Structures are given as structure tokens and as C-alpha cells.
Amino acid sequence: MKKITATTIFESLSSGVRLDVYRLLVKKGTEGMVAGEIGSTLDVPPTNLSFHLKTLTHTGLLTVEQEGRFQRYRANLPLMLELIAYLTEECCGGNLEQCGDFSAHAVCPQCIDPSSDMK
């Protein structure tokens, strides 16, 4: 990941509403939520929510899929894990065995390959 990409992601999460939306969608995993459910859950008016969803989608943190007349939003978990890897790539002076494995596969194999078995 490039520094400019990480900076853009952090800027998009600097709003309390956008951070709440993203954390809610991370919790929902691959199921995601339609915009109306997000607004109801977080008590955010539709016009305000639309602005925040557009910003998160533009940065790549959310994906959106049309379902009839609704739009389902999902957190882009692989991008989140890429950001975590970027932040921790020099953890413990490069001695990752001291810090733990923050790679996407170790942290959340289901996020990388939804068909993987998480037993």
C-alpha cells in the first residue's frame, strides 16, 4: 500500500459518522447491510448517510451492490487488512515473531477467501 492511499483512508474515517458506519459494516462481515438499515441502526438521516456512504465507497473502504431498489453496502475487509499490514509491516523492528502475525490470512482468512473454512 502506498502512503497516499493510507492517508486517504484515514481521512475518510476521520468523521465520527463514517467511522461508526464502517465499524458497523465490519461487524456485519460479508452479509453487509442496505442503506436504510444502516441509517436506522445509527440514527442518521438518509441525506446525511448518503454523503458518508459515497465518501467511504469512493475511498474503497465499502463496496456497494444493487439489490432491486436497495443498495447493499459491505466493508472491504481485504483493504482493511492491507491497511493493518501497512501499519504493522515494521512492527518490532521487522521482527514479526515478537509481535504476532498481522497478515490478512492469519488475521481473517474468511476475509480473503469467503469460501475458506474457519474451523
Describe the structure.
The chain has helices at 3-12, 16-28, 35-42, 46-59, 77-88, 104-107, 109-112, and strands at residues 33-34, 62-67, 70-75. The chain is mainly α and 119 residues long. It has 2 domains: 3-75, Arc Repressor Mutant, subunit A; 78-112, no CATH class. Strand 2 (62-67) and strand 3 form a beta hairpin.
For the report, how would you describe the main beta sheet? Answer: 3 strands, antiparallel
Just name the CATH architecture of the largest domain: Orthogonal Bundle
**DSSP helix fraction:** 40-55%
Shape: elongated
Radius of gyration: 16 Å
Gap from first CA to last CA: 30 Å
The computed structural class is mainly alpha
Question: What's the total helix number?
Answer: 7
For this structure, the CATH topology of the largest domain is Arc Repressor Mutant, subunit A
Integer count of domains: 2
Strand order of the biggest β-sheet: 1-3-2
Average pLDDT confidence is 86
Query: In CATH, what is the homologous superfamily of the largest domain?
Result: Winged helix-like DNA-binding domain superfamily/Winged helix DNA-binding domain
Name of the CATH class of the largest domain: Mainly Alpha
Helix-strand pattern, N to C? HHEHHEEHHH
Q: What is the beta-strand fraction? A: 5-15%
Q: Which residues form runs of ≥5 with pLDDT under 50?
A: none
Strand elements, count: 3
Keywords:
single chain; 119 residues; mainly alpha; Arc Repressor Mutant, subunit A; 3-stranded antiparallel β-sheet; 7 helices
